[in-house]
Amino acid sequence: MSSTSAAPGLAVVTGASSGIGRALARGLAARGHPLLLVARRWQRLEALAVELRARHRVDVEVWPCDLADGEQVARLGEELRSRHVAVFCNNAGFTTCGAVSEADPAREAEAVAVNVTAVHGLALAALPGMLQRGRGAILVTGSAAGEQPVPSAATYAATKAFVNAFAQALSVELRGTNVTCTLLAPGPVRTEFFAVGGVGRMEALTRWFSWQAPERVAEDALRAMERGRRIVIPGPAAKLQAFAGRHTPRALLFPLLRAVFLPIVRFSGARSHVRAWPPSPATSSRFVASEREVDDQASLRG
């Protein structure tokens, strides 16, 4: 079914200031949806709103919100309950990278708050109105990284495991209601996510991994949402990553990650221009995102 086939209703996008979130907003505006854009970075939201109003002649509201702040999330939830939300893109998230033993506990708690608590709470805020009206679509940005534990991104992968499972279970529960839930589980995407996560060289070191453009990922996601699909994994590399993450025995997976993935993460986050490969064990292994606002694109990361 297509929850957006009639006169387009209000679409809400969290993490709309960059990457996949911004591309989702543009795709929804092109489809004629009025928009409510949510993110921490107010100036970016305003710039995007001006662009979309001019290009697509749609109404665009902005809602600055720190999704790590429970009070702000509660206010946003009340807003969602009071509005006729046709489409809810539950997209915002961020990562931390590095050993858990070196992590900032407060920062890790913020990651759980944004990636899990806010995603869960806002979905529950938007859902009752959709069910009462008998139409609506929820799109949740998870990650291919949520299909397996990821040493060096342990908290991130764990939060995405929750999101992946929650969105798919909700999709099944909603069958027959004319309300849908679609999980977007991308692999590596060309956005600022890795740079913000402190591993800015990741794309350069893994170009062979078929990185996706955010516009392509967002369009695939919106089409899948409109068809009422349970899950969309854009691109063959992401599909392979998700399949391998689900089915590779952990006794094989973890040695492979230690041998290949962890050195890439360390080298990607090295602040000095180290030329030696592999990097020295002394290279710092803790890289923390400086912005919660960056959208989820997925992969290690990521």
What does this structure look like?
By secondary structure, the chain is α/β, with parallel strands linked by helices. It has a single domain (10-288), classed as NAD(P)-binding Rossmann-like Domain (Rossmann fold, 3-Layer(aba) Sandwich). The chain is 47% helix and 13% strand. The chain is built from 10 helices and 9 strands. The protein has helices at residues 19-30, 42-56, 70-82, 105-133, 154-173, 193-196, 202-205, 214-226, 236-247, 250-269; strands at residues 10-14, 35-39, 60-64, 85-90, 96-97, 136-141, 179-184, 231-232, 287-288. The strands form 2 sheets. A 7-stranded parallel β-sheet has the order 3-2-1-4-6-7-8, sandwiched between helices. Strands 5-9 form a two-stranded antiparallel ribbon. Strand 2, helix 2 and strand 3 form a beta-alpha-beta unit. The two termini are 30 Å apart. Mean pLDDT is 81; it is low at 1-5, 190-206 and 269-302.
Task: Name the beta content range.
Answer: 5-15%
Coarse shape: globular
Number of strands: 9
Low-confidence stretches: 1-5, 190-206, 269-302
The CATH H-level superfamily is: NAD(P)-binding Rossmann-like Domain
- The CATH level-2 architecture is identified as 3-Layer(aba) Sandwich
Instruction: Indicate the CATH topology.
Output: Rossmann fold
Could you state the order of secondary-structure elements as H and E?
EHEHEHEEHEHEHHHEHHE
